Sequence to fold (511 residues):
Amino acid sequence: MPKWLKDAIFYEIYPQSFYDSNGDGIGDINGIIEKLDYVKQLGCNAIWLNPVYDSPFKDAGYDVRNYRKVAPRYGTNEDLVRLINTVHKKRMHIILDLVPGHTSDTHPWFKQAKQAKKNNFSNRYIFTDNVWNAPSEYRLMCGLCERDGNYMVNYFSSQPALNYGFAEVTHPEWQLPMDHPDCLATRKALKEIMRFWLDQGADGFRVDMADSLVKNDDTKEPTATIWADIRQMMDEEYPDAALVSEWCNPQIAVNKAGFHSDFYLDHIGNGYNTLMRGGSWGDKAFFNKNGEGNIKAFVDEYLPAYLATKDNGYISFITCNHDTPRMTAYLDEDAIKIAYATIFTLPGVPFLFYGDEIGMRYLPDLTSVEGGYSRTGSRSPMQWGKGKNFGFSECDKTYIPVDPDKNAPTVEKQRRKKGSIYKAVKGIIKLRKKHPELGADGDFEVIYAEENSFPFVYRRGKYVIFVNPLDHLTDVRFDYEVKQEVYKIGEYVQSWEKMTLSPQSFVIVEI
Ligand code: GLC
Ligand code: CA
Fold:
């Protein structure tokens, strides 16, 4: 386990939307370097950088054309190395995005694989043996190349799946087993890409669709064996580098695949949805003040995952990410503050998505840009302050339009405003750093989390945390002696054996 990870508080930077330093309407690496102090002042000490590699951007860079080259619109490889070094000088860490499951269909490997004539890359991707062979249980792209066969995709049609083999070979005429030399060659190529960036100082990777490598893999344990092999390489060669997975199954990702942390996202059961976005439009979210949420659904799913993995690694909560609607789509400001306070006082390694700290709006009406579709609404340019495009860019037309609301929140305004989301985020991060019990490794115990009932109460070492998202008072039995108040949003009263919490409150006391 890399030593720095337990104290890490990540800030996710979506590079194209963070800060445009040269006025072409797209964020870039030099822009990120200019804004590092901002991230540090907020209290974050680690960065997850979304893909910055050369790409045709059919899926915002998750369609890699060259893993070893920075996309010119972001800068050069030297710029990225300068970013990494500057991050380190500020005593922060940075992990890059690794896309192991697929490439762009413009990647040179794929261009070779598509050719009729057999070559070294013919098995780098997964092709059926002829175009008429198109079993419907696979996501196959048919009739698109000279080679007589159809290829499998991982995500969009422009993202052919790399070939790590099949756990169960059901069509031997075109499926290869995992230990086939050509599948092992794919794995070797992946390791080389990882070494390439780790050798230049990257502190690890956030791994995209980490569970997607092996096909016909229902249990995902075969896929986990590949990562366990990679983890071994990391332990031997790069013991300080971290691996964070987009897997959403910590029991496998952490315990079997060897990831240091696994994201808790909306596709683990529906626990995360239950917290932030339950129901059709957040109407059943736990943090919604209407009281229709159910914390038990979350706890029933999270607690076993936490208990099963806590000795081996972490679970990472996010405020949101580049794939999910920002909480502003569903929750009011007070609810958001309480939600963030909860996320930052749970165990594991938390991630804050750029702009969430100022309450940037989710913009549902934006036309899709770079394969974003509904996700585009969470990817609009960062709002820094007054001036053109809220200070994001000097250009006339930014690649995704900025929030059209002139009163949209900005860093400048949020820093001044009393009781702003920005101040709440900064405060809770500071608190987490001050009290290790509230951090990644501290104990976690559920005190009160009942079916459709409020509040949610949990304990972290000597601290007890009360969360009341409701628009009215609520109380809960509580007969400990409170030594001191540690943090609060809203108010509380302890009397007799009861703790009464004001509407939309979040309270930490020491017992
Ligand atoms: C992950 C990324 C997402 C991307 C997809 C395909 O879910 O977070 O943005 O589109 O993988 O690579
Ligand atoms: Ca730029």
Remarks:
- Residues 443-510 form a domain with the Immunoglobulin-like fold (CATH 2.60.40.1180).
